[in-house]
C-alpha cells in the first residue's frame, strides 16, 4: 500500500513539473517567481516532515525502551499525539503548497489556510494539560476552534453554492 501511495506521489510530482515546464514560456516573471517559491517551500516542508517523523519514531522507540509509554503517564501520550499532529499539519501544509502548482493558481485557498489553523489549534488542545491550564487559555482555544470551524463551514457552503450555480460543462 505504501508503494502504491509513493508511486502516485511520484507520478503527481512528475506531472506537475512537466506541466510547469510546458507552461513556463507563457508565464510572466511573477508567475515564474511564484512557482519557484512554491517548489522551494515544498522541499523545505518535506524536509521538516522527514525530521518530524524521524523525531517521532526515535521518541516512541525511547519511550517503549524505557517503559514510559503506558497508561500511568498521560503526559507521554500527549507528547506523542502532539508530535503526530505536527506531522499531519505539515503534510496538509505541503499538500496545499503542491496544490498550487497542480491547479496553477497564484493564491492559496482560504479554506486550506483555515483548515491548517484549525488543526494547529486542535493540536494545542491535545498537548495542553487541561487540569493545569489557565481558564483564559482554554476559553481562547475554544473560541478559536468555534470561530475557525464556523469560517470553514461558511467557506464550504459558499463553494458548494457557487458550484451548484455553474452550468454543466464548465
From TrEMBL:
Keywords: Cell membrane, Membrane, Transmembrane, Transmembrane helix. The keyword Transmembrane helix applies. The chain crosses the membrane at residues 36-63, 75-93, 105-125, 137-155. GO terms for cellular component: plasma membrane. It is a multi-pass membrane protein. Its main location: membrane. It is found in: Cell membrane. The keyword Lyase does not apply. Pfam families: PsiE. This is Diguanylate cyclase. It comes from Candidatus Filomicrobium marinum.
Amino acid at each position: 500500500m505504501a508503494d502504491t501511495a509513493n508511486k502516485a506521489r511520484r507520478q503527481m510530482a512528475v506531472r506537475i513539473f512537466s506541466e510547469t515546464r510546458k507552461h513556463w514560456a507563457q508565464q510572466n516573471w511573477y508567475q515564474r517567481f511564484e512557482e519557484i517559491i512554491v517548489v522551494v517551500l515544498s522541499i523545505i516542508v518535506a524536509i521538516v516532515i522527514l525530521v518530524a517523523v524521524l523525531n517521532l519514531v526515535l521518541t516512541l522507540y525511547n519511550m517503549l525502551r524505557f517503559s514510559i509509554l503506558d497508561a500511568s503517564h498521560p503526559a507521554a501520550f500527549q507528547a506523542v499525539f502532539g508530535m503526530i499532529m505536527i506531522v499531519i499539519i505539515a503534510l496538509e501544509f505541503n499538500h496545499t503548497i503542491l496544490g498550487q502548482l497542480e491547479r496553477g493558481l497564484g493564491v492559496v485557498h482560504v479554506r486550506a489556510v483555515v483548515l491548517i489553523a484549525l488543526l494547529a489549534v486542535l493540536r494545542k488542545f491535545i498537548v495542553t494539560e487541561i487540569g493545569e491550564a489557565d481558564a483564559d487559555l482554554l476559553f481562547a482555544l475554544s473560541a478559536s476552534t468555534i470561530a475557525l470551524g464556523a469560517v470553514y463551514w461558511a467557506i464550504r457552503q459558499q463553494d458548494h453554492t457557487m458550484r451548484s450555480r455553474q452550468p454543466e460543462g464548465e
